[in-house]
Amino acid sequence: MAELFDRLPFENLYWNQAETLTQEECRTLQTRQLRRTVERVRELPLYRSFFEENPLQDEDFQAPEDVRRLPFTTLTDLRAQFPNAHWTVPRHEIARVQTQDGFLTAFTRHDLQIQADLSARYLYAVGIRSNQMVQVSHAFGRAGLAFALQSGIDCIGAASIPAVNQIVPTNSAMITGYRTGQTANEKMEETIDALCALNADAICADAEFVLAILTLAQKLERNLPIRNVCVPATSTGIALRYPIQKDFPVKVWLHWEHPAFFGAGLAGECCRQDGLHIQEDRFLFECIHPETLQPLPDGEPGELVVTDLAHEAQSLLRFRTGIIGVFNATPCPCGRTTRRVQILGENDA
């Protein structure tokens, strides 16, 4: 598919020069940040017993691979703690708290700046610019995803159109001829009217909603101005992105988000649509065998594991995401030097 995007309506520049770090620069930065992260979390209830039994020091972390000395963290671990047991700053330094999947995610003001930067990197890579209008159609209570994308749009300087109480059709409605209930249709017609009136350039939403609104607009013979669509790299998003691009005059760009890590910004596509660039200056990524938990080399699929290197309010060590993916270390024609990940699905084990 990459050849379809050789001529794009935007220049492929970088939002942050950290996206073009050399491998040596990135590894040095990751090692330094890993040491800081260990110091930040060693007294937390979540990890205290491990560090009491394993009194690791700075000299034990000489390379990013030394993260393997640390314990894994799971969603079950987080749910078993008090809501703020993994916070690493005093309560008065917390600027925002979001809840999802049974645990809380906290942010300092500096964290919110990082969140905006990470989201801006992805949005800028897929063509969002300061002279555009972008609708955010994710519910603003959903894992901070809407807040994260909103902050990235603000960071770039584009105009945002937050959508409130969007009604998303069910999967079954999509399958049976894209029919939805009358209430959903009416709500989507209002959205179509607004997008047309404002001449919106892009929309951030789940793929199901995007397909439903594009299909309804086509049925109503309305010419939507949207040309860029940003969707999470869920199984549905991955399955629908090429059918949407085939049937409608839009490009669909994937991004990988998780509520435990800034709400968005773990990884995002560039103009090549050939994998999602991971943000290696802010996170340390691993790929492990989901049963043996042994590390796997680039090119082999396994469960993706993330260590947070920059989150002030909370940092998670080797968090098992439950996502199956494969890393690609070959150079990308876009010029970004970070590895890319292809999301393959979820670990059902």
Kindly describe this structure.
Helices cover 31% and strands 19% of the residues. It is of the alpha/beta class and 349 residues long. The chain has helices spanning 23-41, 48-53, 75-79, 109-125, 145-156, 171-175, 182-198, 207-219, 235-247, and strands at residues 96-100, 103-107, 133-136, 159-162, 202-204, 228-232, 251-256, 267-269, 276-278, 283-288, 302-308, 319-328, 340-346. The chain has one domain: Rossmann fold (3-Layer(aba) Sandwich), CATH 3.40.50. The protein has 9 helices and 13 strands.
Question: Any chance you could write out the topology, listing elements then pairs?
Answer:
Elements: H1 23-41, H2 48-53, H3 75-79, E1 96-100, E2 103-107, H4 109-125, E3 133-136, H5 145-156, E4 159-162, H6 171-175, H7 182-198, E5 202-204, H8 207-219, E6 228-232, H9 235-247, E7 251-256, E8 267-269, E9 276-278, E10 283-288, E11 302-308, E12 319-328, E13 340-346
Parallel strand pairs: 3-4, 3-5, 5-6, 6-7
Antiparallel strand pairs: 1-2, 7-8, 8-9, 9-13, 10-11, 11-12, 12-13
Helix pairs in contact: 4-5, 7-8, 8-9
CATH architectural name: 3-Layer(aba) Sandwich
Helical content (DSSP H or I, runs of 4+): 25-40%
Kindly provide the name of the CATH class. Alpha Beta
Compute the number of helices: 9
The named CATH superfamily: ANL, N-terminal domain
Structural class: alpha/beta
Please indicate the count of domains: 1
- Kindly state the number of beta strands: 13
Which residues form runs of ≥5 with pLDDT under 50? 1-9, 171-182
Would you give the CATH topology? Rossmann fold
Strand order within the widest sheet?
A: 4-3-5-6-7-8-9-13-12-11-10
Termini separation: 32 Å
Oligomer: single chain
